[in-house]
Amino acid sequence: MRIFHIQGDQFRELLALPEAAPIEGYLWLGIGRPSLEANLGDIQSALQRWTGGQLVDLHVSDLLNDQLTSQFDYTSWYDLLVFRRLAAGADAGANGTPDGSGTDTSLQVAIDTSPVGFAVFDRLLLTVHPADCQVREFFANRLLQQHAPRVEVRNSMRMPPSPADLALRMVNHMVDSYLALRRLLTRQLDQLQQDLFNPHANFHSWQRLLDQRNGLHLLEDTCEDQRAAMTEWIDSLDELPPSTNPAVQRERELLRVRSRDVQEHVERVLTHVRRLESSAENAVQMHFSAQSNRTNDIMRTLTVLTAIFMPLNLVTGFFGMNFEGLPLIHSVVGFWWTAGLLFLLGAGLSWYFWRKRYLGRSR
User: Fold this and answer.
1) pTM of the model
2) Which of 51, 230, 280, 291 would be a feasible disulfide site paired with 263, CB 3.0-4.6 Å?
């Protein structure tokens, strides 16, 4: 559990839960899911002192559930947003070596997600993370470095002015990890398609192709839940009563802009995932269509060869009969006449079938 106090351009970490909320600025309480479950009573008491309200029991159950999908809910004290972050990236194979099917296992991508909960109060942000807390550590270190005087001005970033703004920045960071995943997924699918259409190799990576298809379905469902959650978040911002304070109105407008930006990023990921799914389906259909055409070509060639050798077998069978009075059977040039006839008959039939395009490669 880590506690931070953000006030203007100041960002500092507190060593323990304060007795009262700060007069200026707001608090960010980032806690892991196991720690929240173990210290739930202390957290609820601190929330009661700081905000005058506590987490609803159903929301506590949601925050402790590591299988919860992305969603949004609200109360009179706080807004609750649950967003699933990307928990794992590319799983590299053994030194990037092929797995025996001609496919580089270094491009295998395992899609795994885990939920991050945001309870957004007026002057408090409570974030509930998995045990590793990668998102929390990233933003904590980034804001601490930003506050350090040695940071160059060109790398400066304005401190989040409100808990909602900080929550949206963290959500946007999680969505950007999905955007970065698109390149890996595209590379893996392209390599599988190349192996699928390689005429000189047998494709054996059907299990990998099925795993990627299932992973794309999982990613699509996750993005749809994220889009629905962000849509409800934006609707809740639009339903807020207008304020006469220009600073409050400007802050709300900035929140709407940032929310729409997050939603647009989710839409981009969802569009790309659906495009990859369609490409995978089309590749499989084209593979079986190519296999069917290849089978047809083989059967056509065998049929033509059979048609060519049938009259040749007839001639050889005719002269192979055991009769004394068979024409040319006792002639010295009988064999050469018969061989010439067979050659001309085979060459003529081959030329005929070639002109009809029954022989030769399909174009």
Assistant:
1) 0.69
2) 230
